[in-house]
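Person: Please work through this fold.
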Amino acid sequence: MERSGFGEILACLLDHRELSALELAERAGLTADEVRALLAGESPREVLLRRLATALGFPAVDLFILAGWAVPEDLAPLDATAAKWAASTVTDAVRLPAAGRRELLQLIRSLPQEERRSRFAPKPLMPLADGPGACIIGMLQYRNLNWMGIARVLAFVTPTYLSAATYGVIGSARKELTPRLVTDFAALLGIDARELAALTGVFLPEVPPPPSAEAVDAAALLWETRRLSAVQARHVSELARSLREDSEDG
C-alpha cells in the first residue's frame, strides 16, 4: 500500500476527531479555504503542518512523517547516540510499580535541556518503502528506537514478539500491517489505535481495549527521553535498572 496523500491523512484525522474544516481552521489560525485546499490535495507548507499538529493535538514529528516531509531538526531527538539506552530504560521501567515509573518520568522532565551537538539522522539497515509500515517505523526511530530497540520494547509492553529484522521487513513493505501490529504500535507511540488504523488503511474488526498502564508509561518515557543527551540517557537508564533491581529485591 502506498502512502496516502496529505489531504487523505488530514481527512482521516478530522473524521476521527469529529471536526469540520471550519473548526480546524479556527483552532489552527487558518482560513477555511486554506484547510479545504489541503483536503483537496494542495501540498502543505511547514508552518501549516506545525499549526495543524497543535490544533489537532497530534505529535508534529509524526504528522511530518505521515505527510512525507523531512522532519525539522527542532522536532527530532536531541542525540541519536542516546538510542543506546532508550530501550533499556523502558524495559527496566515497565517492571517497576506505577509509583516508580512516575518517579522516573519526573526525573527525566527535571533534567536540564542541553544544546544539540549533531544532526539527528536515523540510519535504517535497508531502504524503507513509501507506505504505512515505513511511516510507523519512522515514527519509532524518531523516538530513538532502532530495530532491536523496537523489538525489545514491544515484547515487554505488548503481546507482539518479533525479531528485530522483521521490523525492517515491515518498513520495506514486505510484511503487511495487521490489526494486532497496528494496535501495539499505537500503544507504544501514544496514539489512539483506531486513529492509527485509519491513517494506515488497516481495518480493525473490533474496538481494541485501552493500552495497559505499563504501555502508556512506556510511550511517555520514550517521548520524554527524546530531549536527553547520551550522557543524560545513560544516567536515566542506570537509575531505571537500579530502581528495578531494588524493587525485585524488595
The radius of gyration is 18 Å.
